[in-house]
Amino acid sequence: MEIRIRRAQRSDLSEVIRLVRELAIYEKAEHEMWSTLEQYELAFDEKRISCDVAMVENEIVGCTVYYDTFSTWKGKMLYLEDFIVSESYRKYGIGQKLYDAFIEEAKKRDCKLVRWEVLDWNEPALRFYEKQGAIIEKDWWKAKVVF
Amino acid sequence: MEIRIRRAQRSDLSEVIRLVRELAIYEKAEHEMWSTLEQYELAFDEKRISCDVAMVENEIVGCTVYYDTFSTWKGKMLYLEDFIVSESYRKYGIGQKLYDAFIEEAKKRDCKLVRWEVLDWNEPALRFYEKQGAIIEKDWWKAKVVF
Prior knowledge:
Two copies of one chain form a homodimer. By secondary structure, chain A is α+β, with helices and mostly antiparallel strands. Chain A has one domain (3-131): Gcn5-related N-acetyltransferase (GNAT) (Aminopeptidase, 3-Layer(aba) Sandwich), CATH 3.40.630.30. Chain A has helices at residues 13-26, 37-45, 94-108, 123-131; strands spanning 3-7, 50-56, 59-71, 75-85, 113-119, 135-137, 140-146. A five-stranded mixed beta sheet of chain A has the order 1-2-3-4-5, sandwiched between helices. In chain A, strand 2 (50-56) and strand 3 (59-71) form a beta hairpin. Chain A is globular and about 40 Å long. At the A-B interface, helix 1, helix 2, strand 3, strand 4 and helix 3 of A face helix 1, helix 2, strand 3, strand 4 and helix 3 of B. Strand 7 of chain A pairs antiparallel with strand 5 of chain B.
């Protein structure tokens, strides 16, 4: 299987949102997903998000969505907002290639660290991140207000 | 006590970093704080962070640090990276004024939600956030790689 990672173009965003929805369903949270393609396009146009996509033949089967942020403790940070490999394409090393491209991009942007979040019951994801040498912190809770 | 909230200027950043260090010590994590004033100034100049400061007379006694991000589920999001009231100035309503200014700014920027994180043992912070009607999520872990 030939896997190719490339930077997403604006016209790929409808496929990216399809993958985000697929993961939201896996995370039992589709009802929490209210975003629209127009919001993605606006964020993309304003350079508020970057995306990479994984291609198998001509199909998009995985993606990452990330953006620059700032850690008051460490400095410039790249935040991995979403990281998806479509279910039927798992176990072929696609996630590893996407992850490696993300880390490479963080170094290129002179970031001091990268961060993301993982659901405490998502065992396959946790095993993958531990294999990458990521530090998992369990003593923070997330807070939010939705308007 | 007269409390005034205003947008931080570049020259306030050394006071902001002093407050961030004070909170890092409270969170038992001063050794985790490696950032420099130069990094703050660069992020400020590049508009990657916004700060508000709370003034009592001519002293900066509290601050927020926040930035625009993007939720793949909800759309445009304002992320509260740090939120500090200097210990000897707590209980005077300064945190409430800073929080209100942050929420107002999020609405002005047309954000769909705001997010932040809180340590699971930080009871005063948790009580404050619950009083604001924030939703606390306990089933996510944080992951990071530091370069």
